[in-house]
Amino acid sequence: MRGGVPLPFALIHNRRSVINVWNLASAVERCLDADVAGRILHVSDPESLSTAALVNHIAAALGRRSMLWPCPPHLLRMALRIVGGRRIGQRLLDSLEVDTTASCKALGWQPPVSTADGIRRAIVTSA
After folding, report:
1. What is the CATH code of the structural domain delimited by 21-126?
2. Domain range annotation of the chain
3. Cα–Cα distance between 74 and 122 in angstroms, integer?
4. CA distances, 72 to each of 57, 89, 121 (Å)
5. d(C-alpha 77, C-alpha 85), whole Å
6. Are 43 and 104 in contact (CB under 8 A)?
7. How far is CA 19 from the centre of its chain?
């Protein structure tokens, strides 16, 4: 993003659950106080993002305009397979969204930091 290279993700409409470190810390802290021993809990930021939306959030956090161009997902996937990037294609193009409803209810928890603010904080912190 800092280099201003256009990325071919404008047509990617996948859904990815992400969690920022502040929401993760909040959820872990809540787990220490809750009776959830032995349970598998799924937590995430309040908003799932597409790859394109994630790029847009990162660009906004950097104070830049995102430069996305439309490449059909099947062509992008095929190009990545040709160069040996099948797993990269899965990470960029496929959806991986978790349902946090039961976990949030069991913990009595909601993520305190918005998705956009978590990305902004992470960018500012790493700069």
Report:
1. 3.40.50.720
2. 21-126
3. 31
4. 21, 13, 32
5. 9
6. yes
7. 7
What is the C-alpha separation between 117 and 25, in angstroms, rounded?
15
The model's pLDDT over 20-56, given as tens digits with 9 standing for 90+, comes to 999 999 999 999 999 898 999 999 999 999 999 999 9
Question: What counts of helices (H) and strands (E) characterise the chain?
Answer: 6, 0
H helices within the chain, ranges in order? 21-33, 51-61, 73-82, 86-93, 101-107, 115-126
Q: Determine contact, residues 94/14, Cβ cutoff 8 Å.
A: yes
Closest CA to 122 of 58, 56, 78: 58
pTM listed for this prediction = 0.86
Residue reference for tokens 């990305």:
119
